[in-house]
Protein backbone atom coordinates (compact mmCIF):
# COMPACT_ATOMS: atom_id res chain seq x y z
CA UNK A 1 0.00 0.00 0.00
CA UNK A 2 2.86 2.42 0.73
CA UNK A 3 3.91 2.38 -2.93
CA UNK A 4 0.51 3.48 -4.23
CA UNK A 5 0.50 7.11 -5.43
CA UNK A 6 -2.27 9.75 -5.43
CA UNK A 7 -1.67 12.86 -7.58
CA UNK A 8 2.04 11.96 -7.68
CA UNK A 9 2.17 11.43 -3.89
CA UNK A 10 2.55 8.23 -1.90
CA UNK A 11 -0.16 7.50 0.65
CA UNK A 12 2.26 8.52 3.41
CA UNK A 13 3.14 11.79 1.68
CA UNK A 14 -0.53 12.53 1.07
CA UNK A 15 -1.40 11.92 4.73
CA UNK A 16 1.52 14.10 5.86
CA UNK A 17 0.30 16.89 3.59
CA UNK A 18 -3.24 16.61 4.95
CA UNK A 19 -1.90 16.62 8.52
CA UNK A 20 -0.01 19.85 7.82
CA UNK A 21 -3.19 21.41 6.40
CA UNK A 22 -5.01 20.44 9.59
CA UNK A 23 -2.26 22.06 11.69
CA UNK A 24 -2.46 25.26 9.63
CA UNK A 25 -6.26 25.35 9.87
CA UNK A 26 -6.15 24.68 13.61
CA UNK A 27 -3.71 27.57 14.12
CA UNK A 28 -6.09 29.95 12.35
CA UNK A 29 -9.08 28.76 14.39
CA UNK A 30 -7.42 28.30 17.78
CA UNK A 31 -5.84 31.72 17.37
CA UNK A 32 -9.22 33.43 16.85
CA UNK A 33 -11.95 31.25 18.37
CA UNK A 34 -9.84 29.45 20.95
CA UNK A 35 -9.29 25.75 21.52
CA UNK A 36 -12.46 25.20 23.53
CA UNK A 37 -14.79 26.75 20.95
CA UNK A 38 -13.21 25.06 17.92
CA UNK A 39 -14.75 21.79 16.83
CA UNK A 40 -13.07 19.05 14.81
CA UNK A 41 -15.63 19.60 12.06
CA UNK A 42 -14.60 23.30 11.86
CA UNK A 43 -10.94 22.35 11.50
CA UNK A 44 -11.73 19.81 8.79
CA UNK A 45 -13.83 22.31 6.86
CA UNK A 46 -11.08 24.94 7.09
CA UNK A 47 -8.46 22.42 5.92
CA UNK A 48 -10.73 20.93 3.23
CA UNK A 49 -10.19 17.40 4.51
CA UNK A 50 -12.65 14.76 5.63
CA UNK A 51 -13.59 13.87 9.18
CA UNK A 52 -12.14 10.42 8.55
CA UNK A 53 -8.82 11.92 7.48
CA UNK A 54 -8.59 13.81 10.77
CA UNK A 55 -8.68 10.58 12.73
CA UNK A 56 -6.22 8.94 10.35
CA UNK A 57 -3.81 11.75 11.24
CA UNK A 58 -4.77 11.76 14.93
CA UNK A 59 -5.99 8.24 15.80
CA UNK A 60 -6.51 8.86 19.53
CA UNK A 61 -10.16 9.93 19.60
CA UNK A 62 -9.91 11.12 23.19
CA UNK A 63 -6.79 13.24 22.75
CA UNK A 64 -6.57 13.88 19.00
CA UNK A 65 -7.64 17.51 19.21
CA UNK A 66 -5.33 18.07 22.17
CA UNK A 67 -2.42 16.60 20.22
CA UNK A 68 -3.24 19.00 17.40
CA UNK A 69 -3.07 21.89 19.87
CA UNK A 70 0.38 20.69 20.94
CA UNK A 71 1.62 20.69 17.35
CA UNK A 72 0.16 24.16 16.74
CA UNK A 73 1.83 25.46 19.91
CA UNK A 74 5.18 23.91 19.03
CA UNK A 75 5.02 25.39 15.52
CA UNK A 76 4.44 28.89 16.93
CA UNK A 77 7.11 28.43 19.58
CA UNK A 78 9.68 27.22 17.07
CA UNK A 79 9.02 30.22 14.84
CA UNK A 80 9.42 32.54 17.85
CA UNK A 81 12.72 30.91 18.78
CA UNK A 82 14.06 31.23 15.22
CA UNK A 83 13.10 34.92 15.21
CA UNK A 84 14.94 35.60 18.47
CA UNK A 85 17.94 33.51 17.38
CA UNK A 86 18.29 35.65 14.27
CA UNK A 87 18.00 38.86 16.30
CA UNK A 88 20.82 37.95 18.72
CA UNK A 89 23.01 35.98 16.32
CA UNK A 90 25.81 38.58 16.45
CA UNK A 91 25.80 39.03 20.25
CA UNK A 92 26.95 35.77 21.84
CA UNK A 93 27.94 36.99 25.30
CA UNK A 94 25.36 37.79 27.95
CA UNK A 95 24.78 41.56 28.22
CA UNK A 96 21.95 44.02 28.73
CA UNK A 97 22.10 44.84 25.02
CA UNK A 98 21.59 41.19 24.06
CA UNK A 99 18.65 40.83 26.40
CA UNK A 100 16.98 44.03 25.23
CA UNK A 101 17.43 43.02 21.60
CA UNK A 102 16.02 39.57 22.25
CA UNK A 103 13.08 40.90 24.27
CA UNK A 104 12.22 43.39 21.56
CA UNK A 105 12.35 40.72 18.83
CA UNK A 106 10.22 38.34 20.90
CA UNK A 107 7.55 40.91 21.75
CA UNK A 108 7.38 42.16 18.16
CA UNK A 109 7.02 38.58 16.92
CA UNK A 110 4.18 37.72 19.30
CA UNK A 111 2.32 41.00 18.81
CA UNK A 112 2.78 40.83 15.04
CA UNK A 113 -0.20 38.48 14.93
CA UNK A 114 -2.70 38.20 17.81
CA UNK A 115 -3.24 34.56 16.90
CA UNK A 116 0.30 33.86 18.04
CA UNK A 117 -0.32 35.58 21.37
CA UNK A 118 -3.44 33.55 21.92
CA UNK A 119 -1.89 30.20 20.97
CA UNK A 120 1.35 30.72 22.90
CA UNK A 121 -0.15 32.10 26.09
CA UNK A 122 -3.87 31.49 26.40
CA UNK A 123 -4.58 28.27 24.52
CA UNK A 124 -1.34 26.58 25.59
CA UNK A 125 -2.53 26.86 29.19
CA UNK A 126 -5.76 25.11 28.14
CA UNK A 127 -3.67 22.10 27.15
CA UNK A 128 -2.68 21.48 30.77
CA UNK A 129 -0.23 18.64 31.45
CA UNK A 130 -0.28 17.50 27.81
CA UNK A 131 1.50 20.67 26.73
CA UNK A 132 3.60 21.17 29.86
CA UNK A 133 6.75 19.45 28.52
CA UNK A 134 6.58 21.50 25.33
CA UNK A 135 6.07 24.73 27.25
CA UNK A 136 9.00 23.93 29.58
CA UNK A 137 11.31 23.20 26.63
CA UNK A 138 10.27 26.46 24.97
CA UNK A 139 10.88 28.44 28.15
CA UNK A 140 14.36 26.92 28.58
CA UNK A 141 15.35 27.64 24.97
CA UNK A 142 14.03 31.20 25.10
CA UNK A 143 15.70 31.75 28.46
CA UNK A 144 19.03 30.75 26.94
CA UNK A 145 18.51 33.18 24.07
CA UNK A 146 17.27 36.08 26.19
CA UNK A 147 19.83 35.73 28.96
CA UNK A 148 22.73 33.85 27.47
CA UNK A 149 23.69 30.24 28.15
CA UNK A 150 26.19 30.46 31.00
CA UNK A 151 25.26 33.40 33.20
CA UNK A 152 22.99 32.73 36.23
CA UNK A 153 21.70 36.28 36.32
CA UNK A 154 20.92 36.06 32.62
CA UNK A 155 18.64 33.09 33.32
CA UNK A 156 16.85 35.10 36.01
CA UNK A 157 16.33 37.94 33.56
CA UNK A 158 15.00 35.58 30.92
CA UNK A 159 12.65 33.71 33.25
CA UNK A 160 11.40 37.02 34.60
CA UNK A 161 10.66 38.40 31.14
CA UNK A 162 8.82 35.28 30.08
CA UNK A 163 6.77 34.95 33.26
CA UNK A 164 5.81 38.60 33.57
CA UNK A 165 4.95 38.94 29.87
CA UNK A 166 2.52 36.01 29.86
CA UNK A 167 -0.66 37.79 30.95
CA UNK A 168 0.29 40.93 29.07
CA UNK A 169 0.70 39.21 25.71
CA UNK A 170 -2.25 36.88 26.20
CA UNK A 171 -4.62 39.81 26.65
CA UNK A 172 -3.13 41.95 23.90
CA UNK A 173 -5.08 40.20 21.13
CA UNK A 174 -8.43 41.34 22.58
CA UNK A 175 -7.72 44.83 23.92
CA UNK A 176 -6.80 48.24 22.58
CA UNK A 177 -3.35 47.95 24.16
CA UNK A 178 -0.57 49.57 22.15
CA UNK A 179 2.24 47.23 21.13
CA UNK A 180 4.60 50.01 22.21
CA UNK A 181 3.21 49.64 25.74
CA UNK A 182 3.94 45.91 25.69
CA UNK A 183 7.52 46.38 24.49
CA UNK A 184 8.14 49.08 27.11
CA UNK A 185 6.75 46.89 29.88
CA UNK A 186 8.81 43.88 28.79
CA UNK A 187 11.93 46.04 28.68
CA UNK A 188 11.09 47.33 32.16
CA UNK A 189 11.26 43.90 33.71
CA UNK A 190 14.53 43.14 31.93
CA UNK A 191 16.10 46.32 33.28
CA UNK A 192 14.80 45.74 36.81
CA UNK A 193 16.16 42.20 36.85
CA UNK A 194 19.67 43.50 36.19
CA UNK A 195 19.68 44.65 39.81
CA UNK A 196 21.14 41.21 40.74
CA UNK A 197 18.17 40.86 43.08
CA UNK A 198 15.33 38.38 42.94
CA UNK A 199 13.19 41.03 44.63
CA UNK A 200 13.60 43.15 41.51
CA UNK A 201 12.07 40.33 39.48
CA UNK A 202 9.14 40.09 41.88
CA UNK A 203 8.61 43.86 41.83
CA UNK A 204 8.68 43.91 38.04
CA UNK A 205 6.23 41.02 37.87
CA UNK A 206 3.77 42.97 40.02
CA UNK A 207 4.35 46.06 37.88
CA UNK A 208 3.21 44.15 34.82
CA UNK A 209 -0.12 42.97 36.20
CA UNK A 210 -2.58 43.64 33.38
CA UNK A 211 -6.27 44.35 33.41
CA UNK A 212 -8.44 41.55 31.97
CA UNK A 213 -9.75 41.92 28.47
CA UNK A 214 -13.08 43.67 28.20
CA UNK A 215 -16.21 41.56 28.04
CA UNK A 216 -17.26 43.22 24.80
CA UNK A 217 -14.07 42.54 22.89
CA UNK A 218 -13.76 38.93 24.15
CA UNK A 219 -17.30 37.86 23.51
CA UNK A 220 -17.95 34.46 21.95
CA UNK A 221 -17.60 34.13 18.18
CA UNK A 222 -20.52 32.14 16.80
CA UNK A 223 -19.45 30.34 13.63
CA UNK A 224 -22.86 28.73 13.23
CA UNK A 225 -24.36 32.05 12.05
CA UNK A 226 -23.29 33.87 8.90
CA UNK A 227 -21.44 37.15 9.44
CA UNK A 228 -21.95 40.06 7.04
CA UNK A 229 -18.22 40.90 7.31
CA UNK A 230 -17.17 37.35 6.46
CA UNK A 231 -19.75 37.11 3.67
CA UNK A 232 -18.33 40.30 2.16
CA UNK A 233 -14.83 38.84 2.49
CA UNK A 234 -15.93 35.76 0.53
CA UNK A 235 -17.65 37.87 -2.13
CA UNK A 236 -14.35 39.72 -2.62
CA UNK A 237 -12.45 36.44 -2.96
CA UNK A 238 -11.05 36.35 0.58
CA UNK A 239 -10.36 33.28 2.74
CA UNK A 240 -11.30 34.54 6.21
CA UNK A 241 -14.76 32.99 6.24
CA UNK A 242 -16.56 29.82 7.27
CA UNK A 243 -18.83 27.30 5.62
CA UNK A 244 -21.94 29.06 6.94
CA UNK A 245 -20.80 32.34 5.32
CA UNK A 246 -20.04 30.68 2.00
CA UNK A 247 -23.41 28.93 2.01
CA UNK A 248 -25.18 32.27 2.55
CA UNK A 249 -23.23 33.88 -0.29
CA UNK A 250 -24.13 31.00 -2.60
CA UNK A 251 -27.79 31.75 -1.92
CA UNK A 252 -27.14 35.38 -2.92
CA UNK A 253 -25.42 34.28 -6.11
CA UNK A 254 -28.35 32.04 -6.97
CA UNK A 255 -30.59 35.11 -6.70
CA UNK A 256 -28.21 37.45 -8.52
CA UNK A 257 -25.17 35.86 -10.19
CA UNK A 258 -23.53 39.31 -10.33
CA UNK A 259 -23.40 39.58 -6.52
CA UNK A 260 -19.57 39.31 -6.42
CA UNK A 261 -19.41 42.01 -9.12
CA UNK A 262 -21.51 44.33 -6.95
CA UNK A 263 -19.21 43.75 -3.96
CA UNK A 264 -16.15 44.48 -6.11
CA UNK A 265 -17.77 47.61 -7.59
CA UNK A 266 -18.47 48.83 -4.06
CA UNK A 267 -14.86 48.16 -3.09
CA UNK A 268 -13.61 50.03 -6.16
CA UNK A 269 -15.82 52.99 -5.22
CA UNK A 270 -14.24 53.00 -1.76
CA UNK A 271 -10.75 53.18 -3.27
CA UNK A 272 -11.64 56.09 -5.57
CA UNK A 273 -13.57 57.95 -2.88
CA UNK A 274 -10.93 57.78 -0.14
CA UNK A 275 -8.20 58.71 -2.62
CA UNK A 276 -10.26 61.80 -3.46
CA UNK A 277 -10.69 62.62 0.24
CA UNK A 278 -7.01 62.04 1.03
CA UNK A 279 -6.07 64.99 -1.17
CA UNK A 280 -7.65 67.29 1.42
CA UNK A 281 -7.91 65.36 4.73
CA UNK A 282 -5.16 63.86 6.92
CA UNK A 283 -7.33 61.76 9.31
CA UNK A 284 -9.64 58.85 8.44
CA UNK A 285 -12.12 56.91 10.54
CA UNK A 286 -13.20 53.67 8.86
CA UNK A 287 -16.55 52.70 10.40
CA UNK A 288 -17.35 49.00 10.08
CA UNK A 289 -13.81 48.48 8.83
CA UNK A 290 -14.34 44.81 7.95
CA UNK A 291 -11.90 41.97 7.38
CA UNK A 292 -8.69 43.24 5.72
CA UNK A 293 -8.81 42.89 1.92
CA UNK A 294 -6.03 44.71 0.11
CA UNK A 295 -6.04 47.50 -0.78
CA UNK A 296 -7.64 48.73 2.44
CA UNK A 297 -8.49 52.35 3.27
CA UNK A 298 -5.09 52.92 4.89
CA UNK A 299 -3.19 51.50 1.91
CA UNK A 300 -4.99 53.77 -0.52
CA UNK A 301 -4.74 57.01 1.45
CA UNK A 302 -1.08 56.49 2.38
CA UNK A 303 -0.20 56.56 -1.29
CA UNK A 304 -1.42 60.16 -1.16
CA UNK A 305 -0.08 61.03 2.30
CA UNK A 306 2.24 58.63 4.19
CA UNK A 307 1.60 60.52 7.46
CA UNK A 308 -2.18 60.12 7.41
CA UNK A 309 -3.85 58.82 10.59
CA UNK A 310 -6.26 55.90 10.07
CA UNK A 311 -8.49 54.35 12.76
CA UNK A 312 -10.75 51.36 12.12
CA UNK A 313 -13.92 50.77 14.15
CA UNK A 314 -15.79 47.45 14.32
CA UNK A 315 -17.63 45.21 16.76
CA UNK A 316 -16.95 41.86 15.06
CA UNK A 317 -14.35 39.88 17.08
CA UNK A 318 -12.83 38.26 13.98
CA UNK A 319 -12.55 41.64 12.25
CA UNK A 320 -10.79 43.06 15.33
CA UNK A 321 -8.38 40.15 15.55
CA UNK A 322 -7.51 40.04 11.84
CA UNK A 323 -7.31 43.82 11.54
CA UNK A 324 -4.87 44.11 14.43
CA UNK A 325 -2.78 41.31 12.96
CA UNK A 326 -2.66 42.40 9.34
CA UNK A 327 -3.07 46.19 9.15
CA UNK A 328 0.23 47.68 10.24
CA UNK A 329 0.10 51.26 11.46
CA UNK A 330 -3.69 51.30 11.82
CA UNK A 331 -5.37 51.46 15.21
CA UNK A 332 -8.27 48.99 15.17
CA UNK A 333 -10.72 49.78 17.99
CA UNK A 334 -13.81 48.05 19.28
CA UNK A 335 -16.90 50.17 18.76
CA UNK A 336 -20.62 49.75 18.11
CA UNK A 337 -21.68 52.38 15.57
CA UNK A 338 -25.22 52.17 16.94
CA UNK A 339 -23.78 53.90 20.03
CA UNK A 340 -22.09 56.83 18.29
CA UNK A 341 -21.48 58.90 21.42
CA UNK A 342 -19.37 56.08 22.91
CA UNK A 343 -17.46 55.70 19.65
CA UNK A 344 -16.79 59.45 19.49
CA UNK A 345 -15.44 59.38 23.07
CA UNK A 346 -13.02 56.60 22.16
CA UNK A 347 -11.98 58.28 18.92
CA UNK A 348 -11.23 61.55 20.72
CA UNK A 349 -8.16 59.85 22.23
CA UNK A 350 -6.56 59.36 18.81
CA UNK A 351 -8.38 61.71 16.40
CA UNK A 352 -8.04 65.50 16.54
CA UNK A 353 -11.59 66.65 15.83
CA UNK A 354 -10.31 70.21 15.67
CA UNK A 355 -8.91 69.32 12.25
CA UNK A 356 -10.75 67.90 9.20
CA UNK A 357 -11.43 64.18 9.32
CA UNK A 358 -12.95 61.80 6.77
CA UNK A 359 -15.65 59.44 8.03
CA UNK A 360 -15.87 56.33 5.85
CA UNK A 361 -19.06 54.23 6.02
CA UNK A 362 -19.14 52.08 2.90
CA UNK A 363 -21.79 49.36 2.85
CA UNK A 364 -22.38 49.90 6.56
CA UNK A 365 -25.83 51.36 7.05
CA UNK A 366 -27.49 48.78 4.83
CA UNK A 367 -26.90 46.39 7.76
CA UNK A 368 -28.06 48.77 10.51
CA UNK A 369 -31.82 49.23 10.99
CA UNK A 370 -31.25 52.16 13.38
CA UNK A 371 -31.65 55.72 12.13
CA UNK A 372 -28.46 56.48 10.14
CA UNK A 373 -29.22 60.21 10.08
CA UNK A 374 -29.10 60.35 13.88
CA UNK A 375 -25.94 58.23 14.02
CA UNK A 376 -24.06 60.37 11.50
CA UNK A 377 -25.38 63.49 13.22
CA UNK A 378 -23.48 62.59 16.40
CA UNK A 379 -20.24 62.47 14.41
CA UNK A 380 -21.15 65.56 12.41
CA UNK A 381 -21.51 67.54 15.64
CA UNK A 382 -17.80 67.16 16.46
CA UNK A 383 -16.33 67.28 12.94
CA UNK A 384 -14.45 70.40 11.84
CA UNK A 385 -15.14 72.36 8.63
CA UNK A 386 -13.43 70.67 5.70
CA UNK A 387 -14.34 67.21 7.03
CA UNK A 388 -15.82 64.61 4.68
CA UNK A 389 -18.32 61.76 4.76
CA UNK A 390 -17.97 58.77 2.40
CA UNK A 391 -21.04 56.55 2.11
CA UNK A 392 -22.22 53.66 -0.05
CA UNK A 393 -25.62 52.11 0.53
CA UNK A 394 -27.91 49.62 -1.18
CA UNK A 395 -31.28 50.78 -2.49
CA UNK A 396 -34.37 48.80 -3.44
CA UNK A 397 -35.60 51.44 -5.87
CA UNK A 398 -35.83 49.94 -9.34
CA UNK A 399 -35.03 46.43 -8.10
CA UNK A 400 -37.39 43.45 -8.60
CA UNK A 401 -39.44 43.25 -5.35
CA UNK A 402 -39.15 39.46 -5.21
CA UNK A 403 -35.35 39.63 -5.44
CA UNK A 404 -35.20 42.24 -2.67
CA UNK A 405 -37.44 40.10 -0.46
CA UNK A 406 -35.24 37.04 -0.97
CA UNK A 407 -32.08 39.03 -0.30
CA UNK A 408 -33.63 40.03 3.00
CA UNK A 409 -34.37 36.38 3.74
CA UNK A 410 -30.72 35.43 3.31
CA UNK A 411 -29.52 38.15 5.66
CA UNK A 412 -32.31 37.41 8.14
CA UNK A 413 -30.30 34.29 9.01
CA UNK A 414 -27.08 36.29 9.44
CA UNK A 415 -25.89 38.38 12.39
CA UNK A 416 -27.21 41.57 10.77
CA UNK A 417 -30.29 42.11 8.58
CA UNK A 418 -30.18 43.61 5.09
CA UNK A 419 -31.68 47.11 5.12
CA UNK A 420 -32.54 48.76 1.80
CA UNK A 421 -33.42 52.44 1.71
CA UNK A 422 -34.79 54.72 -0.94
CA UNK A 423 -32.61 57.26 -2.75
CA UNK A 424 -34.10 60.19 -0.81
CA UNK A 425 -33.46 58.37 2.49
CA UNK A 426 -29.83 57.76 1.58
CA UNK A 427 -29.41 61.41 0.56
CA UNK A 428 -30.80 62.33 3.98
CA UNK A 429 -27.80 60.68 5.66
CA UNK A 430 -25.71 63.54 4.22
CA UNK A 431 -27.69 66.09 6.25
CA UNK A 432 -25.27 68.88 7.21
CA UNK A 433 -22.87 67.94 4.40
CA UNK A 434 -22.69 69.23 0.83
CA UNK A 435 -22.47 66.51 -1.80
CA UNK A 436 -19.51 66.79 -4.16
CA UNK A 437 -19.93 66.08 -7.87
CA UNK A 438 -21.35 63.87 -9.27
CA UNK A 439 -23.56 63.61 -6.17
CA UNK A 440 -25.21 60.40 -5.00
CA UNK A 441 -25.01 57.93 -7.91
CA UNK A 442 -24.51 54.24 -8.62
CA UNK A 443 -21.07 53.31 -7.30
CA UNK A 444 -20.02 52.26 -10.80
CA UNK A 445 -20.69 55.84 -12.00
CA UNK A 446 -18.89 57.74 -9.23
CA UNK A 447 -15.81 59.17 -10.95
CA UNK A 448 -14.93 55.88 -12.70
CA UNK A 449 -11.34 55.24 -13.76
CA UNK A 450 -12.49 54.30 -17.25
CA UNK A 451 -15.80 53.40 -18.85
CA UNK A 452 -18.39 52.96 -16.12
CA UNK A 453 -19.87 49.49 -15.70
CA UNK A 454 -23.60 49.11 -15.91
CA UNK A 455 -25.64 49.10 -12.68
CA UNK A 456 -26.92 45.71 -11.51
CA UNK A 457 -30.46 44.64 -10.50
CA UNK A 458 -29.65 45.45 -6.85
CA UNK A 459 -28.13 48.93 -6.91
CA UNK A 460 -25.46 50.31 -4.62
CA UNK A 461 -25.31 54.09 -4.41
CA UNK A 462 -22.27 56.08 -3.33
CA UNK A 463 -21.25 59.65 -2.67
CA UNK A 464 -19.04 62.04 -0.72
CA UNK A 465 -20.25 64.97 1.33
CA UNK A 466 -18.12 67.71 2.86
CA UNK A 467 -18.61 70.32 5.54
CA UNK A 468 -17.96 73.72 3.92
CA UNK A 469 -15.08 75.69 5.42
TrEMBL record:
<dbReference type="InterPro" id="IPR029063">
    <property type="entry name" value="SAM-dependent_MTases_sf"/>
</dbReference>
<feature type="DNA-binding region" description="H-T-H motif">
    <location>
        <begin position="39"/>
        <end position="58"/>
    </location>
</feature>
<feature type="domain" description="HTH tetR-type">
    <location>
        <begin position="16"/>
        <end position="76"/>
    </location>
</feature>
<dbReference type="InterPro" id="IPR001647">
    <property type="entry name" value="HTH_TetR"/>
</dbReference>
<dbReference type="Pfam" id="PF04672">
    <property type="entry name" value="Methyltransf_19"/>
</dbReference>
<dbReference type="Pfam" id="PF00440">
    <property type="entry name" value="TetR_N"/>
</dbReference>
<dbReference type="InterPro" id="IPR006764">
    <property type="entry name" value="SAM_dep_MeTrfase_SAV2177_type"/>
</dbReference>
<keyword id="KW-0238">DNA-binding</keyword>
<protein>
    <recommendedName>
        <fullName>HTH tetR-type domain-containing protein</fullName>
    </recommendedName>
</protein>
<dbReference type="InterPro" id="IPR009057">
    <property type="entry name" value="Homeodomain-like_sf"/>
</dbReference>
Amino acid sequence: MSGRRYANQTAEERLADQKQRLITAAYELFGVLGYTDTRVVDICARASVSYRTFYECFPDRQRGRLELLRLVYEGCAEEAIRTVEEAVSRLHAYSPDRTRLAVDAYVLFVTGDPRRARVLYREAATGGEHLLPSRDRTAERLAALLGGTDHPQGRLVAKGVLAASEGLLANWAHTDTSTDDISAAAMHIAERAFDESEQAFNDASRYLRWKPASQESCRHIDTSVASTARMYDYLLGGKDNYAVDRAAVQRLIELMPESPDLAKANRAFMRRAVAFAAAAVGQFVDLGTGIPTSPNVDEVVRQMNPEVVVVGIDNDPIVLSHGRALRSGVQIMYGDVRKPQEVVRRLAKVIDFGRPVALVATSLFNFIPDDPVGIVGEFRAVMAPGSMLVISHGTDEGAPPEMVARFREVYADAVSPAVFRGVAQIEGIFDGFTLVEPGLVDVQHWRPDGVAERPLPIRMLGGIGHIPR
